[in-house]
Fold:
Amino acid sequence: MTVLRISILFVLAAVAEIGGAWLIWQAIKENRGWVFAVLGVMALGAYGFIAALQPDANFGRVLASYGGVFIAGSLAWGIIVDGFKPTLWDWAGSAIALVGAATIILAPTAANTATETAS
Structure:
C-alpha cells in the first residue's frame, strides 16, 4: 500500500508541477494571458502541498527521488500536450532517472531495517 501511495502522490505532484510550469510558459512564451499565469502559480502551490503528503519524512530524499518522476513526467507531458518527439537519448535518460528515483525511495533505510529486524 505504501508503494502505491508513494506512486500516486508522485504522479499527482508531477501533474501539478509540470502543468503549473506549462501554464506559466504559455502565459509568457505564447502570450496566453495572466489567467494562465495565475492558474500556473496555483498549480505549483498545489504541487508543494502534494509533495508534503509523502510518507517519508525526509525532504531531501523525497525531492531527490521525485526528480526522476519529474524528468519522465516532463517528457510525457511534452509528448501528450505539445507533440514532442523524444529521441533515444531522451528515453534512456528518463529510464536512468526513474531507476535512480526508485533506488532512492524504495531502498531500505536504517529505520525500515530496524523495524523489519524487530519483527
